[in-house]
Amino acid sequence: MEGVSIMVSANPVILEMRSITKEFPGVKALSEVSITVHASEIHSICGENGAGKSTLMKVLSGVYPFGSYQGDIVFQNSVCEFKDIRASENAGIVIIHQELALIPELSITENIFLGNEPTRFGVINWAEARMRTMELMARVGLNEDPDTPVKEIGVGKQQLVEIAKALNKSVKLLILDEPTAALNESDSQHLLDLIRGLKSKGISCIMISHKLNEIEQVSDSITIIRDGKSIETLDVKADGVDEDRIIRGMVGRTLESRFPDHTPKIGEIFFEVKDWTVGHPQISDRLVCKGSNFNVRRGEIVGIAGLMGAGRTELARSIFGRSYGNYISGQIFKDGKEITMRNVPAAIKHGLGYVTEDRKTLGLNLLDDIKTTTVSANLGAISNNTVVDRDKEYSVAEGYRKQLRTKAPTVDEGVGKLSGGNQQKVVLAKWMFTDPDLLILDEPTRGIDVGAKYEIYGIIQELANQGKGVIVISSELPELLGISDRIYTIFEGAITGVLDKNQASQESLMKRMTAATKSA
Amino acid sequence: MNIIKQLFGGNSRQFGMIFALVALIAFFQVKTDGLILTPDNVINLMNGYSYILILAIGMVLVIIAGHIDLSVGSVAAFVGIVVALSMRDWGLPWYLGIVVGLLLGAAIGAWQGFFVAYVGIPAFIVTLAGMLLFRGANQLFGKSLTIPVPKEFQSIGAGYLPEIGPNTGYNNLTLLIGFIGVAALVWGELRSRKRAVALGSDVKPFWVTVVKVVVFAAVILYVTYLFATGRPGTSFPIPGIILGVLVLVYGFISSRTTIGRHVYAVGGNRHAAALSGVKSKRTDFLVMLNMSMLAGLAGMIFVARANASGPSDGVGWELDAIAAVFIGGAAVTGGVGTVMGSMIGGLVMAVLNNGLQLLGVGSDWTQIIKGLVLLAAVVFDVYNKSQGKPSFIGFMMKKLGGNNSNPDLEVAEPLKGTIKTDA
């Protein structure tokens, strides 16, 4: 496949990553991945969440230093052994991360020259820095006072500052990780035009994006990565690539039997969300949920599919006691009656549970042991007049440990010492003990090995069999297809469709997850 | 080392500190030719440090919740002066004076708690402001003068258990407390054994229980003996009684009640606690409120002992209390700490102070030594953690490319499990 693109491209090769293999304990994140980027080319890397795109870019930019991976990086005809980001930057490779690395309090000039200040006898020459900033800003089409603090300009302009910063380092290869994820339409367009302008000046660009329409629009070639392997490299013009073609490459994998058998016993609709609209907690005019409608039936496992940043977690957490964002409008009905949950305790009282995607920072107190964690969302049930009955606590926790087969010597074990799968079981036990009617699971198998995943799926199905509603949010489409009875898709905060299990396929979901307009 | 661990249980820092305390006492006992463990000195020690220990009780909860309170000394001084004035100028009886003091402490705590919990100002700032505010208020109300307190009120700071019953040569009430202590110890040990058996969790060998009971009972009886044989008219001091009751009550609250659990949960991981339905703001509020209330109590005890309230009462107390808590095993990042540990930490500081004083060491060296002890205690803890966390075996496994035994690595990489290892 690489051979094809080399032949059709007239430009010389600027970067070649040959057979890159990167392993983490227990997982092979990248396996023999190769990509070839030509001079003056925009090369996109496509793949599902977790396919290995970011890992590959971290290898390239020296975040994972030479020696921690196998394979060769050949940049400008010499084999590179980057030991850190600085080394790759010196070679002319600059990565711009999704989360911008700007310091909000500092001015545009200060940010651009951070760590790279022009000095005379050790004293910063601000006049020169300012002059050069003006030039750089002109190149990226940014019209601001160079003394403006970065926090006072919008995200789109901040992105331009990042690029200006890269240009200042005489970049030859620019890596953009989800550059337009946080931008609106016109800012995105400006950014894409800028990248094309840079291309014409001889700067190559590697772009990672979930927005396939943008990829289609600007890329010269596309490498598709799936499950840590490079699948194919497409030449956009020669191969006549369109979004469907990319999607097929991204998801074209055979499904294994990774799910326990399950015959759903689905009842009536008991939980319904109507016109749910929520604002971003910091940015007042940005909506994270836009008039979402969905419902859950008893005994049903409902999947929510969406790419990272599509607003899945925001939707779930705003419903769960408004624990995220600013509530604007919308209603929640449970068993036909409207309910209002202003805080988490109210949500728990109304029979909701929420298992977070971010176990370490939002889900667990890593200082706690299994038993205190298990009972922590329902302390009332094991205490008399606020005095905790430790015998009851122990036996409850022990009961769940046996039921869920959590691997730990006793329930006195600290949760920080458990593996991801066992931690997740403890978190599930915590919510099962609150006896919820609706359990929302956000990426329930993230960071969990395959065997434990199977067990977690079993637990989810068992909960549904008890007549509870379960919502599963996941980035892994095979997982959603395997476990859900019905799947909602979400894109940029809006629900773009709902598919029954037998109608849904990875392609049909991906289509609805990537472009709201194209959902049919 | 294992035997010791089985005897004391708990974390290494805590039993490390018990040893430090014992070693310290032994050291001074030898160096001062037995001056430190005399009835008079022990009674003095209790009288002179009980208010710091009371502050440490409140402070450990504040620190577990992830905050700090720098205002306790000033709050104590302000409450002290208001109580003294209320009794001298407004004619309140001593018991109403105490009520006024507690209410005022709670009100101050509510003020500070409001800013910390509901406005979201860091406690460091709120209480730094409080430190200035209430110090100024003390001097404003008291016109920078010393205000005496009545005789009855003085007993809460300088009183002793009375002599009652037959003349045994000892103070009978002190003996009674000692015996109750031993009985409670035996009962508690037996109960926890029974519980462990019933639940099928780890049961310590019986000899461990026996040795533990014997050792602790001996310590209690010896301390009882010291307190019961003081100069005529002295015995176990009233502030010690107040402290003891508070330790029991707060020890119970922190470890056995839902609100106690909430404090640890909020300090351990605020977000996780909030998503588990803990009202974290209310928890913050209550912790700050409680701290100032206890500061008020400490202030009153100090005033009672000193017979008068003055403009520079309580200067530097916050540092003693904070030091006690950290020496006692609390973590700067919150979520870790115990009331008992803080008491041991406070006693380490108290014995150090007292012992150095008996040796005739000046305040210059005393402060230097105390500073170093605080630093050493925390260094010891941090070192232990850094050694303990990625265990040696886990480290070797990682090097060998063995199984993924370190859960930290598992979620650190944004793999989300989509990658299959084609096994």
UniProtKB/TrEMBL annotation, chain B:
User: From which lineage does this chain's organism come?
Assistant: Bacteria, Bacillati, Actinomycetota, Actinomycetes, Micrococcales
Instruction: Tell me the GO molecular function terms.
Output: transmembrane transporter activity
What protein name does the entry list?
Xylose transport system permease protein XylH
How is the protein disposed in the membrane?
Multi-pass membrane protein
Q: Keyword check for Transmembrane helix, yes or no.
A: yes
Q: Transport: present as a keyword of the record?
A: yes
Q: What is its main location?
A: membrane
Give the highest taxon in the source lineage: Bacteria
Alphabetically ordered keywords of this record = Cell inner membrane, Cell membrane, Membrane, Sugar transport, Transmembrane, Transmembrane helix, Transport
Segments spanning the bilayer are 48-65, 93-110, 115-134, 169-187, 207-228, 234-253, 285-304, 324-352
Q: What does this protein do?
A: Part of the binding-protein-dependent transport system for D-xylose. Probably responsible for the translocation of the substrate across the membrane.
Which locations, inside or outside the cell, does it occupy?
Cell membrane
**Gene Ontology cellular component terms for the protein in this record:** plasma membrane
What's the source species for this entry?
Arthrobacter psychrolactophilus
